[in-house]
Amino acid sequence: MTTITAGELAARGFGASATRFDRALLRAASAIDAYVIARVERRDGAERRRALTAQTAASGARRDAEALAATGMLPR
C-alpha cells in the first residue's frame, strides 16, 4: 500500500533498479498484506461480506460504464 511502483519511479526519472533484497522485501510486504486482509475478512460477518461484494460489483459496473462513455459508446 505504501510502496512506489517501478512505473512511477520511471515516470519520475529515477533510473535505480530493484535489487534482490528490494524484491524480497516487496514480496514479504505483499504476503503480510494478503494475510491481514484474509484475517479481517474472516472476522467480518456474512452480511458485511455480502454488502461489500455487492458494492464492489456496483462500482465495477459503474467504472465499466464510465469507460465506455469516455470512448463514446453509450448503452441503448
Automatic annotation (TrEMBL):
Region named Disordered: 48-76
Name the record gives this protein? Uncharacterized protein
Q: Which organism is it from?
A: Microbacterium psychrotolerans
